[in-house]
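Milestone M4 deliverable, item 7.
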Amino acid sequence: MSSSFSDDNEKLSDEESKRYVRPMNELWAMWGPRVKMRIYPFTYAVYEDVERVMTTLTSYDKDKWAAAWSSIAKPYGEKAAQAEKAGDAQNAKENYLRAYQYYRLARYPTINSDGKKQAYRKSQEMLLKASQFFDSPLERVEIPFSGKTGEGNKIVAYL
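Output delivered:
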């Protein structure tokens, strides 16, 4: 088949048009070095945490993906809350950011299931909590909005 699609009569065969799904171990082989270097989207990740999830997941099932990442996020959120209560700002910040990291990965690459939507909300919550310890904390602002039916009545911004 020609590499050009200029001919409208050319069609991809069924085999050629199938979506390629990268095997999980191949994805981990790509992600592993990025995790070690803390390259986006692994800015706050711990290599062993990511390795544990990536070597136990067997599919890209939306809710299993969200549950696996959320399960490692939750303990960091709990550690952060304990550190905050004890007045340990540095540990609170680090653990909230790590929880944010994993909840954000739980909703990756898009919010297309209930589990991923819950993870997205938790990622927002963890980032806001972490930001209390930033030099300039984030603030959630709701801006009134009147758009088309179904678009909602506010726009949420983080300043």
